[in-house]
Design a protein that fits this description.
The complex is a heterodimer of chains A (about 230) and B (about 220). Chain A has about 230 residues and is mainly alpha-helical. Helix content of chain A is about 80%, strand content about 0%. The N and C termini of chain A lie far apart (about 50 Å). Chain B is mostly helical and about 220 residues long. Helices cover about 85% and strands about 0% of the residues of chain B. Chain B contains ten helices and no strands. Chain B starts with a helix and ends with a helix. The chains are: A mainly alpha (about 230), B mainly alpha (about 220).
């Protein structure tokens, strides 16, 4: 138990901070994913074949390629790409993007592909009459989307989004390869310096279990809130 | 874009594909048995037994695969006793550690898929079997399992693809699968995009094959 005590002698405080880091990366990635979904869901539902094709390319490639490979692409290619863009604008110094952003963006792109599919499915399963009713009532596009379609869509999407959240949360463990000190990386460091990998990796597993358990509790509440009336 | 690198890295990555496919098929094979075993335990009326099966699937689905591999590869080696048993022959090899972790992981997901498939079988079908005087084993192997397989094909197809992506984690325990080789080439040439295109296409091609195989099987085994 000394190993996870707080203070200089134990790894408790380090692991606590690392857990917060995991949560922060997961939430950031999820939000970035929503941004991607916001762009690609309309493309998927668009009438134009080319836009469909672009969105399908995104979701198929990202969901068909291992997460680790995507992370390596951004880890090794991220700063290169940004420096290339910066050079166009006449900035020639070395730019290093930090591990947090690299991780959050790469996991966010993955989570975005899953979210896109979830939102597409949810919107498609809303009754057609609802869209038609909005047209008949002459509602403004903005009200029509946020007051009619969105609440119904969220009810259908939340159970599946909770799966996406679980995937995203677990994917954050892969960011440890980039050196960002989250649960997995911290356990790796602790295991290396105490020579007690079994304990620290099991403890990491416990932390992840706790996170998934707590987030499920939270999501169940949300689900109840959005399905009132049903 | 460096076309030459794409051409030279393709054969290297293709030979690494063999490792990926070996890992995938071995873990799916063991995982299917584990999944079936735990699905049957889940349906047991004894609370303790079904609770154990639930705990297994909860733990393995609630923790990242990376943690599971690390516990098995780095963690188990720490137990002095294990080093003296014959198990050490297996556990000192990263290859087998990866397969054990993958099998346990996919086993947990498969058990959930099969459990829900068993639960959706209409009780009338089993009762019909019973009223015909068939014994329990016969009903299970000849009626319940074939129906469950049909039911779970789409979900299992997804699981195969998830597992294919999961095998990339083998590269973290020094195995040279597609991702492992890709990382090696990237870190020596610093050309991530070209390598990503080649490695990604190989993965996508395997995904495409799996997808179509499952589609074909679904059509073949559809209810008449």
């Amino acid at each position: 138990m000394d190993l996870i005590s707080f203070g200089d002698n134990g790894w408790g405080d380090e692991l606590f901070v690392a857990t917060l880091m995991t949560i922060a990366v997961a939430i950031t990635a999820m939000l970035i994913g929503f941004l991607f979904a916001l762009v690609f869901t309309p493309l998927k539902l668009s009438k134009y074949k080319i836009l469909n094709l672009i969105a399908n390319f995104y979701t198929t490639v990202v969901r068909g390629v291992p997460e680790l490979l995507v992370i390596y692409l951004f880890f090794f290619g991220g700063s290169g790409a940004i420096m290339y863009v910066a050079q166009i604008f006449g900035y020639y110094d070395y730019i290093e993007i930090n591990a947090f952003l690299t991780g959050a963006i790469s996991i966010g792109i993955i989570s975005g592909a899953y979210s896109t599919e979830v939102f597409r499915g949810a919107i498609q399963s809303i009754d057609k009459g609802q869209f038609e009713a909005c047209h008949v009532l002459g509602l403004k596009k903005y009200i029509y989307f946020f007051k009619v379609i969105m609440p119904q869509m969220l009810r259908l999407a939340i159970p599946n989004l909770s799966n996406v959240w679980q995937i995203t949360l677990k994917d954050t463990s892969l960011i440890s390869v980039t050196g960002l000190v989250e649960i997995m990386r911290q356990s790796y460091i602790a295991a290396g310096s105490t020579r007690d990998p079994l304990f620290f990796y099991s403890f990491a597993a416990l932390l992840y279990l706790m996170l998934t358990y707590l987030s499920m509790k939270f999501i169940n509440k949300l689900e109840k809130n959005y399905s009132r009336g049903y | 874009m460096d076309l030459e690198l794409i051409i030279t890295s393709f054969p290297k990555l293709l030979s690494a594909t063999v490792v990926t496919l070996k890992l995938l098929s071995a873990s799916l094979f063991f995982g299917l048995f584990l999944g079936l075993f735990f699905a049957i335990l889940r349906l047991n009326k004894n609370k303790l037994i079904s609770g154990f099966a639930y705990g297994y699937s909860y733990v393995f689905r609630g923790t990242p695969l990376l943690v599971q591999i690390f516990i098995i590869y780095f963690g188990l080696g720490q137990i002095e006793y294990l080093r003296t048993t014959f198990l050490w022959v297996i556990l000192k090899e990263p290859y087998w550690c990866a397969i054990i972790a993958f099998s346990l992981n996919t086993g947990a997901y498969t058990s959930e898929i099969l459990r829900s498939a068993f639960e959706t079988i209409k009780p009338g079908i089993i009762e019909a079997g019973r009223s015909l005087g068939l014994n329990k084993m016969f009903i299970f192997t000849k009626i319940q399992i074939p129906i469950a397989i049909k039911q779970s094909l789409p979900a299992y197809g997804n699981e195969i693809i998830l597992m294919l992506k999961g095998t990339s984690l083998a590269s973290t325990v020094t195995l040279l699968d597609i991702t492992g080789v890709a990382k090696f080439i990237i870190s020596t040439t610093f050309r991530p995009i070209e390598v990503f295109i080649v490695a990604g296409s190989i993965y996508l091609f395997i995904t495409f094959l799996v997808h179509n195989l499952i589609k074909y099987l679904e059509k073949k085994y559809r209810y008449q």
